[in-house]
Amino acid sequence: MDFLEQKAPPIREDRLAACGAYGGSCCDLSGQSKKGGCLFNTKRTFSQTQGCQLSLSLGMVASMRDSVVVVHSPGGCGANMLQMAGINRVFQKLRSESARGLRWINTNLDEVDVIQGGEKKLREAVLLAEKEFRPEAILVMNSCVPALIGDDIDAVLDDLQDQVNARIVPIHCEGFRTKIQATAYDAVYHGILRNLVGEDNAKTKRVLSDDPLTEAERQARISRTVNLLNVGSMSRVDEIELTRILNALDLEVRVLPCFSHPDDFTYSYEAALNVSICATHDDYFVEHFQSKYGVPFVLRTIPIGIANTNKWIRDIATFFGIEERAERFIAAETQELNQALVPYRKELSGKRVFLTGGEIRIMTTAELMHDLGMEVIGLRGYHFDKFGERLLDEFLEDVPEADGAVFNVGAGQLFEQANLLNRLKPDLFVGHNGCNGSAAKQGFPIFPLFGQSNDYLGYQGVFEVAARTARMVRNPAYNRNLGQNTKLPYRESWYAEEPFRYIDQSALEDEGAEPVPF
Q: Which of 49, 282, 284, 346 could potentially form a cystine with 276 if both were Cys, beta carbons 3.0 to 4.6 Å apart?
């Protein structure tokens, strides 16, 4: 895989044959995903809404320190940055004393620019960013409108690079290109790999010592260094917990890319291993990194729950040849954790849970909920691809009784979610931001799938999730009252319909897939 010579990465529908529409059981999804791209042919005859990859890309780049984001778009698209301004300063401060508030410029394209082109405004915005802020990097986000009218932002930015001191990073994240919002991660990583990583992109060339002892020490440090790739849904306490685990294995940790400085990427190839916590987030980056710099990677699972945290640690330990040390650490942590979980497992035993969010995150979280004694009755993933297929097979091995659980694929289709919840009536809804409000109005207790203030990952995350989940299940009065006094904007007749009636799965039916009975 090598797309770095291109201006923009391919969309995930083309690169991974990612599926954005499916309704069935976990067992059927596992089988159908292995049949030569049948899932890719599924589509919706009606779609309520979908995510925009610009907003997801902005969520990553807005956290970068000592940089300015130029959103080349109409004002409405640029307004995406407002939702990030409140939390960005706080969470940068948790990671660096030199953190500043959000700095961004919107080119504010209007009707005249749509006719005459917006390249002049883009040029002015980049020069203003350089003059006002003197940043280390200027991240230019290309939205739908300039892409549709044909603005050649790469030519403009290539010309401007000789006029500014900051490194300019074009990011092609036009929302209309894809229905798989996770393509946004590829767009950001594509820009970073092309414009920030590597000595060729260094502002000041590094001078290495001629002292062989000093060079030997540097190589020794590199041989124990891992790049821990964080994501926007990873809190600071998550980072601290995973760093604690890796330090216990005598490894040094460099955390990228969220909340990093542009200079952190320059020599990031000086590492022994790239450690991902989410294949959906990182596969584009780690595979190109291995191809270009020879740095291998771990991409198997998210360290959520005891089983997946143990798998994650063992994969890393196998690479470094420290299996015995890792097993001692796992045994000690697991024993202490299992003792602490006894009261929560008793309290949660038999409770029914429904989960929605990213494909990797919901399956690892579902395994955690099962380990706490809960019954997994349904999952909704935003999309599904080969990484989800691999993890679903592992999930069904660990939790075979979940093979008949519902699995719905689709981002933004809250009408399908409402129908499913009305039928399944779970005791707990575990949801992604944007879905929780709808489920709460139906009266279901809500447990957020992630949160910037809480711990979800590693062994500490297991205990924290157990304690918070038990508290939600113990006291659902607020959501019950909400459900009794609010109503979603769907007719009662919709709740009597088959929930997947607007998904065209004719290709799957030809292969013998059975509809889910309700």
A: 282
